[in-house]
Amino acid sequence: MLLLEDVHTHYGKIEALHGVTVEVKQGEIVSLIGANGAGKTTLLMTVCGNPQASSGRIVLEGRDITRLPTSDIMRSGIAIVPEGRRVFSGLTVEENLHMGGFFNTKSEIRKGIEHVYELFPRLKEREHQRAGTMSGGEQQMLAIGRALMSKPRMMILDEPSLGLAPLVIKQIFEIIGQLREEGITVFLVEQNAHQALRLADRGYVLETGRIRLQDTGENLLANPDVQNAYLGG
Amino acid sequence: MVAAHNLKHALFCAVITLVISWPIMGLKLEAVGTQITLQGADPFTWIAIGVAALAVFLFQLFREAILGRLGMLKSLNPMADRKPMPQEKRLKLESIGLTLLIVLALIWPFFVSRGSVDLATLVLIYIMLALGLNVVVGLAGLLDLGYVAFYAVGAYTFALLSQYWGISFWMALPIGALLAALFGLVLGFPVLRLRGDYLAIVTLGFGEIIRILLNNWTNVTGGPNGIGGIPDPTLFGMEFGRRVKEEGNVSFHETFGIAYSGEHKVIFLYLIALVLAVFTGLVIRRLMRMPVGRAWEALREDEIAARSLGLSRTGVKLSAFTIGAFFAGFAGTVFASKQGFISPESFVFLESAIILAIVVLGGMGSQMGVILAAIAVTILPELAREFSEYRMLIFGAAMVLMMVWRPQGLLPMRRRQIKLSTGE
User: Are residues B130 and B58 both part of a single domain?
Assistant: First the structure.
């Protein structure tokens, strides 16, 4: 579904990704783990076209998106839940969801919002509340809900557990599991390696701009190197 | 420890006051014949400078206490903690109020003096400008300090077109607005990547470039001498002058068989400005509720999130810039026609600052607030005219108090919330 082939990305003269190859297949949950500064977020941003890859190829559903502008990429069946949630804090929950379906018709938006409220009954309760006044967990739900509004076939989540309480993290990961049942392919980038790998079909370990390891989620969890480096032994 | 720090800081400020004001106010250059001599000022000025330094010293010394008091002024404001009205009631009140206001504005000029109508026309021009800038600053969140450039483009378009090709007001109105919009588009491209302070500085530079260009391109724009003899607007080919200037036109007072009066023209201009201001308001109001309006707000709230939803940063910012510039062009054309004479003097940075102040005072994004603020900011200095040189002081003090009391503006924007119709 999504394929990155030997992708190099530069920030100015500094190379942040040194030839990364990652594949996410239809219906999978794939986790990407790595330490701070390994290039996880850079990899995601490269998929979104900001910054664009300096060499290599990114293919989404058979279509080369390497040189497309961000706005075109984001309209081609892919949705991202950005790091740190980034809900529109001055807008109500409903308006945030409305913005998510910006390019859809009115009836599609109505159905989409109903669907999101089914997935997250909590958001329904807060329908007319300003997003900025909600708790971190609720905002994360809203961010996922907003991304769902564009009816994506693939969803990228950048550190959905960032700054959340353990109990809330558990909820969020349950929700990500549900996304798979909806038929959405999930590409998950996480620091919380334990949770991320347990949920994932496959995982990649990124280290200083290179893919160090790749395997099924279970195998990576059991891998002593991964345990030492990311799971605290 | 804190007191010592305060004392030091206060002393420093007082010394700075002395250092700055002493050469500026205390020393005078007098020309005696061919010689220029340096003279000290009279004792009164010296005392005034001393008092000013003392005042600065005392204020800085007790700054916390004074500012604390100022903060407490909030409780004196009876409107401080009111509950907001429900949306339906507010919208109804607003539309009734607006209709009344427009009707009143339509009949009002026939009963007042020529000077008042003239001032009111100026107010309307500022309303147009402020509504336009409100799109850029209030809705899209792009700080534009060179907005006056688009105003100048509108005004000069009309002036030049009429001077070189004899084009009338009505033809020049859309041309001026479109040309200003084009300038907005052209400026928009390079500044798209910039945000906040950087954007402000680039737009500031652009405003100055336009003014300096107008000032120095003498053989086209007349430079600092400006352009005069800009024609008045006509009403279906009827002129408002005593005698008809152009072949084939008739004069207004002869057509209707009434005595000539200079007031007709003033009132006519006022009505044009009113219609255009209402048009501006309605168009922008409509835009705010369309997807493009929501896109502006989304981009202001969070650029990354907006882009992650597939909004094109370029498109959204450019549309805000262009639409803002378009209405500035409108206002510029009306202004040129009202004055009959324009020069680069009318388009200095201060104008941009005043328009921006109107938007901030009114409450960013709020149309009613911006209109009220435009009226206040234009009329207050006129009302205070008898205080002559102190009027800008009063104006400044009013702004400071305003920001302490109501930092969110006169009528802060209450967004009209989207409600999906329940059921089918």
Answer: no
Q: How many residues does chain A have?
A: 233
Q: Is any Cβ of chain B less than 8 angstroms from the Cβ of A116?
A: no
**CB neighbours (10 Å) of residue A184?**
19
Q: Which residue segment(s) compose the domain that B132 sits in?
A: 97-405
A189: phi then psi, degrees, rounded to nearest 5:
-110, 125
The residues in A 160-179 lying below 8 A from B, measured between CB atoms, are none
Instruction: Name which of A50, A74, A88 is nearest B310 (Cβ-Cβ).
Output: A74
pLDDT in tens, A146-172: 999 999 999 999 999 888 888 989 989
Closest Cβ–Cβ partner in A48, A79, A102 for B311? A102
B418 contacts in chain A (CB < 8 Å): 94-95, 98
The angle subtended at Cα A75 by Cα A151 and Cα B143, nearest 5°, is 115
The CATH number of the domain holding residue B368 is 1.10.3470
Preferred mutation among B300, B309, B422 to probe A, highest tally of A CBs within 10 A: B309
Q: How many domains does chain B have?
A: 2
- Do B157 and B9 belong to one domain? no
Low-confidence ranges of chain B (pLDDT < 50): 422-424
Residues B153 and B225 occupy one common structural domain: yes
* A55-87 pLDDT tens trace: 999 999 999 999 999 999 999 999 999 988 899
Mean pLDDT of A167-192: 90
Specify the CATH architecture of the domain A2-77+152-231: 3-Layer(aba) Sandwich (3.40)
Nearest CA in chain B to A104: B291
Instruction: Give me the interface pTM, i.e. the ipTM.
Output: 0.87
**pLDDT by residue (tens digit) across B199-255?**
888 889 999 999 999 999 888 888 888 888 788 777 776 777 666 666 666 677 667
Does residue B136 sit in the same domain as residue B263? yes
- The mean predicted confidence, pLDDT, of chain A is 90
The verdict on a CB contact (< 8 Å) between A103 and B310 is yes
Is the CB of residue B202 less than 8 Å from the CB of residue B194? yes
Residue B419 lies in a domain: no
CA-CA distance, A27 to A1, in Å (whole number)?
A: 9
Residue B142 lies in a domain: yes
Model pTM score: 0.78
Of A71, A91, A128, the CB nearest to B301: A91
Q: Collect all residues with Cβ–Cβ distance below 8 Å to B323 and sequence separation of at least 6.
A: B132, B135, B181, B184, B284, B287
B interface mutation test: which of A87, A98, A102 has the most B CBs within 10 A?
A102
Do residues B51 and B153 both lie within one domain? no
**Angle, vertex CA B56, rays to CA B54 and CA B58, nearest 5:** 70
3-class state of residue A91 by DSSP: coil
Are the beta carbons of B302 and A87 separated by less than 8 Å? yes
Domain limit, last residue, from B25, B44, B75: B75
Q: What is the identity of the amino acid at B49? A: I
